[in-house]
Amino acid sequence: MIRRILTYPDPILKQQASEVPNIDGALVSAIDDMVETMYHAPGIGLAAPQIGLSHRVIVLDVDPENNGKNLLKIINPVIAETAGDILWEEGCLSVIDYTAEVQRAAQVLVRGWTPEGKEIGIEADDLLAVALQHEIDHLDGTLFLDRLSRLKRDLYKRRLKKLEREGRDPPPRRVMI
Ligand code: CO
Description:
This protein is an alpha+beta fold. It has three helices and seven strands, in the order H-E-E-E-E-E-E-E-H-H.
């Protein structure tokens, strides 16, 4: 089922999500909804809080042309190691009409669990490393906006107000995490 994606400044996006204590049918079906919602958006990553669920779960597919071959579903993801720095132009399904360069670690090792209960470790660089950090940030109530200078963030707030005031549809979204 495709779920509605919450957008900034929805307060749920600011909340710390809870660890998943055990994997049950309800969780697995919520994860399926996340995958469907991510592909439909379209986006290359989605975190549970973006559809209003306060669970530490993320889904990603940085290669969506490949029919789900590179789809990742990660429960309780943790960044175990990082190396280097990278600047990447990020957007977010929860941040309407805005992208900005964000500094992240260039490489990460993320540990977590699959919906089948298998422990996994994912080594990533480039876009996947950026996307993993972006999604895990969502679980801690952090948007990429929070990683920008205050000036840039304030500019975005003003732009959003203007969009609301004018009551027109926002322009189409670009690649969104
Ligand atoms: Co996002």
